[in-house]
Amino acid sequence: MLETLPEVANIVLQEGTEAAAEPGIRDAGAGAIAVGLAALGTGYAQRGIGAAAVGAVAEDSDNFVSGLIFTAIPETLIIIAFVSLFLVL
Amino acid sequence: MSATGSSNPEYVNSRVRARRAALFDEEDYRKLVRMGTGEIARYMEETEYETEINALGARHSGVDLIEYALNRNLAKHFHDLLSWADGRLYTQIATYLRKFDAWNAKTAIRGVYSGASSEDIQTDYIRAGEFSGNLLDQLAAAGSVGEIVELLEGTIFEEGLDEAYAEFEEQDVLVPLENAIDKTFYEHLLDGIDENTVDRNSPQGLYLEVLQAEIDFTNIRNALRLSRTGTDLDPDEYFIEGGKLFERGELPGLVGNFEQLVERIRESTYGEDLEEALAKLEDADSLIQFEQALDAALLEYSDALSYTYPVSICSAISYVLAKEREVENIRAIARGREVGLSVEEIEEELVVT
Asked: A5 to each of A16, A38, A71, B34, B281, how far by Cα in Å?
């Protein structure tokens, strides 16, 4: 992952190529990356919460509703990222 | 489910906590101490223990029924615990549950020594450890203590057992064998953890912390017992390595002087947790009360740790300890009622946090 960073930076900035005037990733592309990263964050947060929620529901199915709500809370991350996408574009 | 892959403490933690909450509380115990053995069995049938009581109800009755149901239920829960856990968490829980291997090995040795039938030994097993059903059957069917020692070769307990067996043959007492098993169990608990490099706030570090507390408490208990009885046994023989309270070679000096030993415990890191227990010890002069307070303190300590760092093995260990305590409490109540102890006397025997 880290070794490829210089290449990624090269693509982003399009350094040393003829199209130097034109960056490879424009607003839309950068926005898409932001949303993607936010989705990763959401997924990571939901991994733990989801596992705990499933455990709690398995012991007592009364916990289903609260488990579902807590599992959905990290969704706010991706929603906010989605909003900023519209702000950028 | 297996030792491979990453651990899943979140899942295990939430399941364990739900079960921890479902254990009997003070209210239940208050009801139980006023019941006869038959009533206790009926009461248990309406709780957690329904399946076990129903399965064993036809064959046993009274205290035996309660006792076997408790053992079987304990084994079931700990087996569940292992089936949920993955990765390093699994390995850690499995190592901890070897406690029951030690218990089973001791049960077999005692049973064979006292000439109990293989069936009787089998019912006393708690099948929650690592030993296979096959090995347990063989242990129960063994004709002599020597045979058991041979069967245990190849398990972690073989180390030190030969020496203990020689001693057993000489003096014909089981103590050396039982001690050897206990010591091996505790000393293997800390396998693979380097005390000096591990980070105290990582799951690994907390695992170490709980286990060290347990080892220290066992050492305290042994030291106080030896000190109280004033025997000339060598305390170093009973010493378990790995704790942080005592060093090897330190105990012989301390055991001789009861006050000094108590003072030492009071000044240690556990002083605050054991304050109440130590006060009781000095007032009442009763070791039993102190040992119960010690158990309660260990329970509270592991609980506290499981709240500070929920995403670790601590909650699982605190559950194992609490469940064991519940089983012991119910057993104490049932046995107490059977021999006709008064309610107050039984209540003194209980460890409730």
From this structure: 16, 19, 33, 72, 65
Number of domains in chain A: 1
Asked whether the beta carbons of residue A55 and residue B84 sit closer than 8 angstroms, the reply is yes
Separation of alpha carbons B158 and B172, rounded Å: 19
User: What is the number of CB-based contacts under 8 A between chain A and chain B?
Assistant: 30
DSSP for B58-85, please give it.
TT--HHHHHHHHHHHHHHHHHHHHHHH-
Q: What is the mean pLDDT of chain B?
A: 82
- Cα B6 to chain centroid distance, Å, stands at 28
**Residue A39 placed within a domain:** yes
For residues B313 and B301, is the Cβ–Cβ distance under 8 A? no
Residue A43 is part of which domain span?
26-88
A51: closest chain B residue by CA? B11
- Rounded CA separation A85/A81 (Å): 6
Residues of B in contact with A59 (CB under 8 A): 14-15, 18-19
Partner A contacted by B247 (CB < 8 A):
no
Longest CA pairwise span in chain A (Å): 64
The model's pLDDT over B302-353, given as tens digits with 9 standing for 90+, comes to: 888 888 877 778 888 889 989 988 998 898 888 888 888 888 888 887 887 6
* Residue A77 covered by a domain: yes
In DSSP terms, which residues pair with B153 in a beta bridge?
Answer: B155
Confidence of residue A19 (pLDDT cuts 50, 70, 90): low
Q: Give the single-character DSSP code of B236.
A: G
CA distance A89 to chain B (A): 39
Q: Is residue A42 part of a domain?
A: yes
Does B1 have pLDDT greater than 60?
no
Chain A residues near residue B89 by CB distance under 8 angstroms:
none
**Contact (Cβ atoms closer than 8 angstroms) between residue B301 and residue B318:** no
Report if residue A13 sits inside a domain. Answer: no
Per-residue confidence at A50, pLDDT binned at 50, 70, 90? very high
A64 touches chain B (CB under 8 A): no
Q: In this complex, is the C-beta atom of B77 within 8 Å of any C-beta atom belonging to chain A?
A: no
3 state DSSP class of B153: strand
Taking only the tens place, the pLDDT of each residue in B186-237 is: 878 777 676 666 777 777 777 788 888 888 888 888 887 777 776 666 777 7
Contact status of A56 with chain B (Cβ, < 8 Å): yes
Place of tokens 């000094």: B260
